[in-house]
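ok so for the tutorial part 2 we go from a plain amino acid sequence to predicted C-alpha cells. step 1 is just haveing the sequence, like this:
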Amino acid sequence: MRRALLVGGGLGVLVAVAIFALLGFLGRNSDPATDDTASSGTDSAAVTTGGAQADRAWFDNPVLEADAPDPHLVRHGDEVLVFTTNADGLHVPLHRTDDLRSWAEPVDALPDLPLWVSPAQTELWAPAVLSLGERWLLAFAARHRDTGLFCIGLASAAQPDESFVAQPEPTVCDTEIGLIDPFLVADEDIPYLLWKRDGNCCSQPSEIVAARLDDDLAVGDPSVLIDRSLPWEQGSTDTQTTVENPALVSTPQGWILLYSGNGWESADYAMGYARCDTPMGPCTKTRRAPVLAGDSAARGPGGGSVLELGEGLWLLAYHAWGEEIGYDEGGRRTLRMDLMQMLGSNLVVTGPTVAPYRVELPGDLKAPTGTG
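step 2 — the prediction. this is what the C-alpha cells look like for a chain of 372 residues:
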C-alpha cells in the first residue's frame, strides 16, 4: 500500500519534499517510446519536516467516504467546493469543506432541471464549473427527453455555492451519439467547452473534443483533441474501451489534457494525459502508460480535476473504488486527493496514497482541531 507525504512546512518545503519523494520513481512506468518517464505513485514513507503542522490542512484518503463520482474541485473564499455526478437523490451534489476533513451535508447545485432533460432519466453526469466575468458557469451532461441521448447543458449563478439556473435549451447535442463529461476552461478570458463523444456505447469512436464558446455561450466548430489509441485504454469489451473525463490544465510547460481511460467499472480504469498546443489542440499523447493507476486500496482511479497550489503544483481530486468494484456489488466511488506536479517536462502524480497527508493550500483554509 502506498503511503502519503507528511509535510509540516510551507509550500516551498512541500515542493522540495514532493520532488525528493518522487525523483526515485520517475522511471517506474517509463516507456522508451515516449519522451516522458514520470511515474504514478511512491512506495516509500515520505519525509516529516518541522514547523507548525497545525497551520496546514491535512486529510486522509479517501477524503470523503460518500459516493462522489467525477469530482470537480473549486476554491471559493475559505472553502473548497466539490461538485460530483448525481448521487443520493441530488442532481449535482455539492460538497463543502474548510479543512479537507469535515464536510457539510451536500446540497443540490442544480435543484431545478430544464425542460429538455428527460423526466424519466434525470441522472446528471460529470459537472464542471468555471468563473467567467461576474458569473459562474456549470456544465453538465443529461439525457434529452426526445432522444434519450446525453447532451451538454449550461447553467449559471452569481457564486459557485449558490443554486445554478440552467439555460432552457441544451448547449450541444448530437443526433446519433451521446455527449458526456463536459469541462470548462478559459484562456485569456475566452471560454472553451470540452466533452466526450460517447462512441464506445455504440461501436463508434470515442473522442474528446473542444469548442470555443461565444459571448452568448453558443458553441463554435468542435475540434478533436484525442481518441482512444493506447493499449491501457483498451478494456475487456468495446464498451469498456474509451477515453473520457477531460480536464485541461495550463502549466508552465504548456497545456496538459488529463483524461480517464478503460472501463469505469473496472480496476483497470486509470488516468493519462496528453500535451496540447492550445485549448483547441492539436494534442499529442507522449506517454503510453497511465500517470495514475490503481492499487488494492484505490481501484480504478479516474474523473480527475485539479486545484492549483503553486506554480507547477496542484491538488488532484479523483474518484476510486474500494474493495468492491461496481454498484451492483455494493461499491462506491469515493473522493480522493493527491499531489500532481511538473518535474521538468514530466507530469507526476504521487498516488494513490493513504493517510496522513498534509498540505498548505492557498488562502485561509483552516487546519482541523486535533493532531492528525
